[in-house]
Amino acid sequence: MKNIFFYLIFLLIVLPTSCKKQSNDAIDDKPDEETPIVGSENAVFTPMSGTPGDIIQVKARFKADKSLWTGKLGDKSMQLSRLNDSIAYFVVPVVSPGKVNLNLSEAGLKESIFTVDTYQAITDPTPAVSSFSNTLETLITSLHEEDATLKTNMNLLMEAFHKKYAELPPSEKIALAYCLNGITKNLQAGPQAGSNKLLSASSSASLQSRLLKSSSFAWLDVPGSIESQAEYREAILASGALLVFSLSTLVVGAELFAAPTGWTQVGGLALLASSLYSFSKFLKYKSVMFRYNGKAITIFMPSASNKMRLMSTTTSNSAGLTFVQDTLYALRPTVGYETLTTADKNSNNMVFSRLISRMEEAGGLYNKGIDFLNGVSSWFSAKPSLTKFTLGLPASSPVQNRTSPGSLLRVEAVSDSRINIQVTPLDDGISVKASSTEVDTIVPLTFRLAYKEPDLGIDIHTVVNATYDGRPRPHQLDKVSGDKQTTTPGQKLKEPLKIKVTDENGKILAGVDVEWKIKSGGGSLSNTQRKTNAQGIASAEWTPGSTGDQEVSVLVNTIAGTPVRNAPLVFTAQGVTIIGKWKATELYHDWYDGDIDVSGRQMLGYHVAYTRESTKHDCTDHDKIEERTDAYELEFKENNTANFREKGFYRYQTACSTVPPIEENYDDTTSSSYTLRPDNVLVIDIEGDEMNFKILKLTSDELIIETFQGDYMKLVLKRN
């Protein structure tokens, strides 16, 4: 957009209040150095068609020795008026519709073909004059009290217009009517009703399309003050549009007014009246706009330590700025602003350079118009009070440092393509968040922080030197599943233990170190995941121990080495303890006699009789034994002691003996100690005699044990 005011010039010279046809054709925006040389057939005409009264812009490289050339459109003479070295224009005369030869050889241009569009011929000029007059009267009425001088001057010009129009012969009134239609059409267009702003600061449309939609700027209401950069941008664009709007009417009006007699003088008077309105509004905008320093010239980056979340200290040093992954930071750079100065005429910023050039051009034409009006003072009932234009720009400007709206700030040229920087505009800066799916370490990072106002041709930037810390930042540890399961000693839990690690924003984190540890109860862990997966999950399988509280702890630390929130987590298993009273429902022995095999036989509640070889050396008979176990009960206590109760019947008859048999119904209780080993072995010590039982099953209501050394014994017990 470096040639933005060529957009304004080219657009509004073919759209102005004078004798002009509305056009949505694309606007040529080639820089001056590419302007065709005199005599080149590539001179640009915009538009290449029109109707009588339309102004046609011509872009070429003109000589500076003349301001006016005579040309012909068909058989009708017309004048080519030069605005500057590269822009001139002519008014389409009344010729028949169709393709017509355009001869501007006096200006050094080759002959071209111009299309005169179909139009409604004017036979009665009265409607055109009335419409123009009513429109100007409406504009005059709309002026505020502080515009009293402008109102008086416009009334005087309109009074003179009606006076001079009445003196024209009918044919010249009709010629004038074509021009008045063009003026009126554009005076009646304007910003949308109810809007005091010409351009919307949030508009994303191109300047060209916005100006085309606005069409005319005659209705623009100039604000009393400018309070923000957005308003300043609107003021520059609106004042520039008013300026160019005035330029076209002033230059055409001045040339028409300079004609010896006839309708052209009256048409020039009408154009000068229109330009007086728009140029006065430009001058009002200028007086308001230049009180606000709004041209951005430099950016100062804020400084920050790693601990700062909001960075607003003004300094030119941005070293030490660290962006932690997925953490929001507010960057509030200070932008230096200054106002327009006379030096900007030669600056590289084409917007401001050409604005000043157009101000000088328009001012010269405006002053020329004043001279013309002063020369025909007899036309007026009172002399118009018109003050000549002076540029009035300072040679230099103080710089104001202030924050700028985030809508004008951009982050560009990020040095590491693996890192994505998201930017959200703030009222006084931008919110920045850096993230990466590939970088999980600390790496250097640079980017360009740019301030861009393409409408004003401003593009300044500063390079930010920073670092990016992509290390996962664990903040919280949570259980996913596996807690408080019911355990059987020696058996792996049905579900694995699962945890999840997230950062401060709740985002799951992969690759985080996880420490698993048996806290109490013995047992073991297997298939342990010591880093979180892509879902932020880590798991372990747990085989609880046989006694006591069953607990597993899980620890995750922050980057600083301190536990994250909720850490350490503790998983518990609802352990089934052996402690308590148990009563046998089944009892199996592995005793064998040559005649009777009771191996693996259910003994509880059954009467068993068997024999055994006599221990007497001179007896060949067998001892006779009978027994029955009616009850078998165990009680395990927390202090690792146990009580055993056995109730039943026993009878023993010794062979080769006259002694009566031993016979008793017994109910005995014995105390002992026990140990429950981690390998799920129950060791019972009865007066120094150890019995080793393997725990086959332990639930809340059932215990099954069996010996695996010495005589076989198996017990099935229910909790009593």
What does this structure look like?
Helices cover 22% and strands 34% of the residues. The protein is built from eight helices and 39 strands. The strands form eight sheets. The chain has an eight-stranded mixed β-sheet, with helices on one face. Strands 30-33-34-35-36-37-38-39 form an eight-stranded antiparallel β-barrel. A four-stranded mixed β-sheet has the order 11-14-19-18, with no helix packed on it. A hairpin with a 2-residue loop joins strand 18 and strand 19 (429-435). Helix 1 packs parallel to helix 5 and helix 6 (229-257) packs parallel to helix 8. The relative contact order is 0.07.
Helix content: 10-25%
> What is the rounded Rg?
52 Å
The total of helices stands at 8
Main beta sheet: strand number and arrangement? 8 strands, mixed
The total of beta strands comes to 39
**Average residue pLDDT:** 79
Distance between the termini: 93 Å
Please indicate the percent range of residues in DSSP E strands (runs of 2 or more): 25-35%
Rough shape?
A: rod-shaped
Q: State the strand order across the main sheet.
A: 1-3-6-5-4-7-8-2
Unreliable runs? 1-41, 190-218, 303-319, 592-596
- What structural class do you assign from the helix and strand content? alpha+beta
Family: Belongs to the intimin/invasin family.
Domain Big-1: 496-558
Region (Disordered): 469-491
Organism: Sphingobacterium pedocola
